[in-house]
């Protein structure tokens, strides 16, 4: 192992490899920051360009795009309340309020540092613990998927400002939207309302753009005032302060990174779930949980460190089992096979330099974010703050339309996005926020699939099929976490642990 | 400012949504396809009924659509839908340039009105906006069609 590790390290420390990391980082940053463009699409487009490269160079380029596209989603989430990728949805929950409070630059730089730390921590864990982590991945069955989704859904209780019941209604509406289209288990078309255009269902990113970007757009036009302003009279945000604020709660970063890593390893769960679960845990563990959702930097840190850690996590089953942990990892699997490399348990023994080199390159890509993010992050932040509102509103509208269209090259998606957006804007006044609807939309299908498959398995194993949901120690750990999430605010209130918001939080 | 009983609005809205989705269910669904949406509909129904009951006991009240101008809210929504219809009929480039310019003009005037700037939009500002819009729309059209291979709608024009 040590020999392969050193070989991999030497292979990625060449000028060519570092240039590929920089190019990949720039491409990924662009893709991630445009709502609607996905890492999967960018990787699929880049694969043909890698035909002439050696396998390691190809994987370095693709890995860098994947890593930085996850990070790029934070920019729009913080500056215009629109997650560029589904993974950045939890970033918007605190990032945008921070931007509204004049701390946009701090939010972006904190997201950068958190992404880097999350990326590096996850690479270290993957290098040291690839084999045991793989065994966790394969022990995740349908029941565990169901409980992971329920854990995410329990966040609705935390995200509901005002009435909890209204938050639950929002979550239910999101879950209903998620059922539109062909059922993955039964195969029937559901809720088409007489039109075949809904057969493909509502695309997650299309709905997210509608839920977050359109209400913000309408609000900007209605008030004719910018939501995000930064006062540069005292100079920009000091880097030392950014590091201090971001790493002031080191356990938050480490916990979020580990959550991201583990959820990234589970095939199908994805980094959007990772961000939400990490955010939930950060809020639950905080002494100042009330400030989450109102601009607490630790919320941004939790979300970003975890969604970047999920990237390295998703390559674990890819390399060790040949099972991709996410759609972008599936494209990378295709790229590996096109280069004649067959992932699996033998890969580390037969092509150790390639396997370790690729994993290490993800760490280098994460470090590259530090340079690109600190320079580019400041520039983008200042540019967005300097753009006059008359340009900002139509530009956001333009990006939302082109982003929704590009998901499936369909204008139907544009109309769905606008419809959901106007709906989200209206119901916000009634006390239903966009976040619970988005949670229902993201986690509903995961919960349904997990529940349905667990019931099928339970029917064969037990007298009562639902016993399958309580089968296995992982299910019980997740159930305990769900209960803890629901009960913890009450316990906190009872213990009187609340304290006033400090400046660094 | 006038306040409204939002519990009643959400409760009735939830019942309507549950009704619409409930009506759209089909009897030939297998249990695998039916259980999950049925469970959500029951949950939505119960939550909505709870809100309706609460609306008559201890309602939550708040003002509605009180941020900025309601006219601008309606106009911007109309322009967004117009943009989408325009892309489908006129084509991506033409519709985008036209609606982008209209929104720029509309929001620009609103900002002047809100901030009380007496200078207004100069001819130079109009020219500059058209150049910026042309570069932006043209640039994205080029990148999407040539590099990303996403064919943008052409409509009657381009």
Overview of this protein structure:
The complex is a heterodimer of chains A (505) and B (158). Chain A has helices at 2-12, 15-33, 39-46, 55-80, 89-100, 104-138, 142-153, 155-159, 164-179, 204-223, 239-246, 250-265, 270-285, 297-320, 327-338, 347-350, 352-386, 389-408, 411-429, 434-461, 473-495; strands at residues 181-182, 189-190. Chain A is mainly α and 505 residues long. Chain A has a two-stranded antiparallel sheet. In chain A, strand 1 and strand 2 (189-190) form a beta hairpin. Chain B is an all-alpha fold and 158 residues long. Helix content of chain B is 72%, strand content 3%. Chain B has helices spanning 6-23, 31-57, 70-89, 92-115, 123-147; strands spanning 4-5, 61-62. Chain B has a two-stranded antiparallel ribbon with strand order 1-2. The chains are: A mainly alpha (505), B mainly alpha (158). At the A-B interface, helix 9, helix 10, helix 18, helix 19 and helix 20 of A face helix 1, helix 2, helix 3, helix 4 and helix 5 of B.
**Residue runs with pLDDT of under 50 for 5 or more positions of chain B:** none
- Into which percent range does the helicity of residues of chain A fall? over 70%
Structural class of chain A, by secondary structure, is: mainly alpha
Annotation field: number of helices of chain A:
21
State the end-to-end CA separation of chain A: 42 Å
Radius of gyration of chain A equals 22 Å
Number of strands of chain A: 2
Secondary-structure element series of chain A: HHHHHHHHHEEHHHHHHHHHHHH
- Measured distance between first and last alpha carbons of chain B: 48 Å
Biggest sheet details of chain B: 2 strands, antiparallel
How would you characterize the largest beta sheet of chain A?
A: 2 strands, antiparallel
Helix content of chain B: over 70%
Overall morphology of chain B: flat
* Most extensive chain-chain interface: A-B, 65 and 80 residues
Strand adjacency order, main sheet of chain A: 1-2
